[in-house]
Amino acid sequence: QLQLVETGGGLVQPGGSLRLSCATSGFTLTYYAIGWFRQAPGKAREEVSCIGISGLSTKYADSVKGRFTVSRDDAKNTVYLQMNSLKPEDTAVYYCAASGSYYWPPEEYDYWGQGTQVTVSS
Asked: 104: pLDDT confidence band, cut at 50, 70 and 90?
């Protein structure tokens, strides 16, 4: 069973921080890049960040650069998204997804999590 499970979402005030976790199982995380996506009501899905194998490569959407940090711990089969200085516009359902591509950046994602809600509001 191939699974990605996002946790760590919740309600935070503007300027606050949240750390999302993407726990994976059923596949070898070592060989996968992991992307973080979000989708807000009425908006298209947006790729927030991505981390390549061994964490040697990362990318961020312009909207989150300097505020979000992606990291991975393959030994724990987990990828993280640290979100700081959160803004109301960061409110969305956040998803992690795995790409088995050896190329950077990934073009396709094979497995998706169920999402976790992040709400930034005062």
From this structure: very high
